[in-house]
User: Fold this.
Amino acid sequence: MMGQHDRSEALFYYFRLEDQIPETHLLRLIEKHISFAFVREQLKDRYSETGRPSIDPELLLRILLIGYLYGISSERKLVEELRMHLAWRWFTGLGFDQEIPHHSTFSKNRHGRFRESKIFEQLFEEIVRQCVAVGLVRGENLSVDGSFVEANAAKESRIPREQLVEAAQVNHTVRQYMAELEQQNPVEEPAHQQDRVSTTDPDSTYATKGGTPARLGYYDNYLVDNHSCVIVGVQATAARMSQETVAAQEMIARFLQWQGRAPVSVGADATYGNGEFVQWLLDRGITPYMRTRDSALRKKSPFYGPERFTYQPESNSYRCPAGEQLNYVGLNVRNRAHAYIGSRKRCGACSLKTQCTSGQYKYLAIHMHETARQRARELANTPGFASAQRARKKVEALFAELKNQIGLRRLRLRRLKFVREQFFLAAAAQNIKRLVRFLSQPTTPALPATT
Assistant:
């Protein structure tokens, strides 16, 4: 006999939220393995001892974390969804008779206590420390990369820089931006990298990456442990390639402090292969697995490369393959290269000129850190380089997760200080998933010894 279900609604239900959450649910695993008690400790000095009790800051952090774990970028939508999800209510500790915080509460705390205390950065660092403590992060071989994330601003919002003072009279964001610039340099306003500035998000940079059309945005930089795929460093910067190596140095130096020792190697793409960064790594005993930026040009060039010329330290000159001397003429500051040249007389009559130069004489540019660059080129032919480049793809997978699952294909918050908080919280959410998965692995009991 076919049954039929009749919709009915009881006036009262009796059940416990605790009984409805499976043991393997992500939020239950997070509750089991990760403590958020540090939040109150970190913020206790920012609350008055008198007055009406505020909303628990740990509650707000837990709600925000849910949004990043489940790809809900809107706080308004997050609050709406929280009303209907049993597991989310259980994780936040909100009963059905308790009021859910208004979505504006998050914005107020973000502009106040959360930003001043750097609570999102603290959360990220706490998770990384725990990953190191339990042995998930080895910290021996790392990879670094950056990804362009579109800003919450349209390219039409850009105006010429000289019009900012006029725009500040009617635009609060621009007025605040101009005030911050004045505080940083009250005597003279620093030169901006761009002639046009967005009135919606003045910190965003108009740039492109990977052949895509130019947009306003930022770079999200990750430093990743190759073994565990855990993010051990995160940095928000302007969308400029020059900022990627600066961010990499800061992230590596910070992780070195946590770990107490330098990593064995760092893998990256050719964007990081400038002489300064390679030299910086070698000075710290770190093996640089990255191609130098000039690799493509050097490979296509029909002429002799710098490796075909012999340096003569006693005269600070180079000897060419034909045995002629190239004399030092000075330092090209812009290209960071020492210049050595031959002469029209010697080069013009040389039988190897067609293989050496197309000019009247040979101009040889030797980078300030050419020794380090040459070391990177030698490492590019080793098995370790191939292994590091394969592992580097893990960073790209993390950026795909960031944009497709967490939902940060386009930023919701504006200004670098708030974009930085988004990146920290997103990276913390990504690490938390890997940490609780590692801690929840079944342990195989040791077999008794047999005689």
